[in-house]
Write a structure and sequence with these properties.
Structural class: alpha/beta
Protein name: Nitrogen fixation protein NifB
Strand order of the largest sheet: 7-8-9-10-11-12-13
Pfam families: Radical_SAM
Distance between the termini: 15 Å
Domain Radical SAM core: 129-365
Number of strands: 13
Order of helices and strands: HEEEEEEEEHHEHEHEHHHEHEHHH
Number of helices: 12
Helix content: 25-40%
Keywords: Iron, Iron-sulfur, Metal-binding, S-adenosyl-L-methionine
Oligomer: single chain
Organism: Pseudobutyrivibrio ruminis
Largest sheet: 7 strands, mixed
Length: 394
């Protein structure tokens, strides 16, 4: 069925609302619905995106909206006005007594999720299916900033490990496990990867990334594997060239907060361990010199700092040639800001619309953004796809 531009835009807007507000449902609603078999389960490899913990209960990763097949990530919030119900074996979403989404289709489980590496590790814990050919590799599911009491206040990486690491058997990954999983994925149509993890000592980080890249190249038999290295800002900017030399085609250093004073408060570890905000900006500038225009990405957490400051940061970075991505803040269980509220959906929608205008003014299109970002299915990705007439069906 074909839809008008206005219908598709309204569907993306509904996605924005649902992801901001989350879904209210009985945690056992998915029992006997195929989660972990035919339906892709959420693998909490780095963060969990719920308001509440649900140990030993599996949730689907996401569902598709009927209009446009836009991917919507499931975020559990018992306080949401969007209620997920199961009626006669069919899942629907109800708001204020009215159905707003009918006959939900959950994402299918990727074939490689049931496979293991040569040493017995579950491939699903090594690379998560992020859709449209993207996989997300988390080599470490913990962050050393916890030991120093300097975690970013919005982050729940360490809490996620405590909640789900043991249950889902998520541990540190070695390079052989990563390379074997990438070989399996790339042999089945995937073609972009992002490698990320929590903070580790700088020297260890660059060496480990180089080892990962070499192992992947050996397994695939190619030099270019279309990979993004997500790293912290180094004190020695010369190490940035080593990521390029290793074979990564793009790099990501997430500044998270643009406002200087708020950066210090919200991201204490990033401020104190990495030379402060000035060094994060200097890192992005150096990455741009090494990797080239729009082969550098920096995510900003959208919803903590004032909108004016956030948009200023996105505009400044994109104008330079950096893919600055507003990451819709959802207040997650276990973070220092647990219990706070993100801005309302209209606030986030305005940010996405302003960001889209900045992208289009600077020539940043969907495929370019996709090749520098881990998730190719955020609201801003969908808005670009809509304007560019790109249809992606899974």
């Amino acid at each position: 069925m074909s839809y008008t531009y206005e219908q598709l835009l309204e569907s993306i807007r509904l996605k924005n609302e649902i992801q901001v507000e989350g879904l209210n449902f009985d945690p056992h609603i998915f029992d006997n619905s195929g989660v972990g078999n035919d339906v892709a389960e959420r693998v909490n490899a780095l963060f969990t995106c719920d308001r509440h913990a649900h140990k030993k209960i599996e949730f689907p990763a996401l569902f598709y909206l009927p209009v446009g097949n836009f991917r919507v990530h499931i975020r559990w919030n018992l306080g949401s006005h969007f209620v997920l119900v199961k009626e006669d074996g069919v899942f629907n979403i109800v708001k204020d007594g009215k159905r707003v989404v009918e006959n939900i289709r959950f994402a299918k489980r990727a074939d490689y999720y049931s496979k293991k590496t040569s040493d017995g590790a579950d491939m699903r814990t090594i690379a998560q299916d992020y859709g449209y050919g993207n996989i997300f590799i988390v080599y470490s599911n913990e962050c050393c900033l916890k030991e120093k009491g300097q975690d970013c206040l919005f982050c729940n990486i360490n809490a996620t490990k405590d909640l789900y690491g043991e249950d889902q058997n998520i541990n540190w990954k070695n390079v052989t496990e990563i390379a074997e999983t990438v070989q399996e994925c790339y042999g089945n149509g995937y073609n972009h990867l992002t490698v990320s993890g929590g903070f580790v000592p700088e020297r260890r980080e660059v060496d480990y990334y180089a080892d990962i890249a070499e192992a992947i190249q050996d397994k695939l038999g190619v030099e270019d594997f279309n990979g993004t290295a997500c790293v912290g800002a180094p004190e020695d900017l010369s190490v940035i060239e080593k990521y390029k030399e290793a074979g990564f085609s793009s790099i990501a250093t997430n500044i998270e907060i643009w406002d200087e004073k708020m950066f210090e408060v919200i991201c204490p570890g990033k401020s104190q361990m990495c030379g402060g905000r000035k060094n994060w900006i200097a890192t992005l500038d150096r990455e741009l010199e090494v990797f080239g225009k729009f082969h550098v990405r920096s995510t900003l957490v959208s919803g903590i700092e004032p909108k004016e400051s956030l948009i200023e940061g996105i505009d400044t970075l994109v104008s330079k040639g950096i893919c600055a991505l507003p990451s819709q803040w959802y207040v997650n269980v276990g973070s220092a800001l647990e219990g706070h509220r993100t801005p309302d959906p209209d606030w986030h929608w305005d940010v996405f619309e302003k960001t889209k205008a900045i992208y289009q003014r600077n020539g940043l299109d969907f495929w370019t953004l996709r090749n520098a970002t881990a998730e190719p299915d955020t609201v801003i990705h969908d808005l670009l796809r809509l304007d560019e007439g790109i249809e992606l069906v899974e």
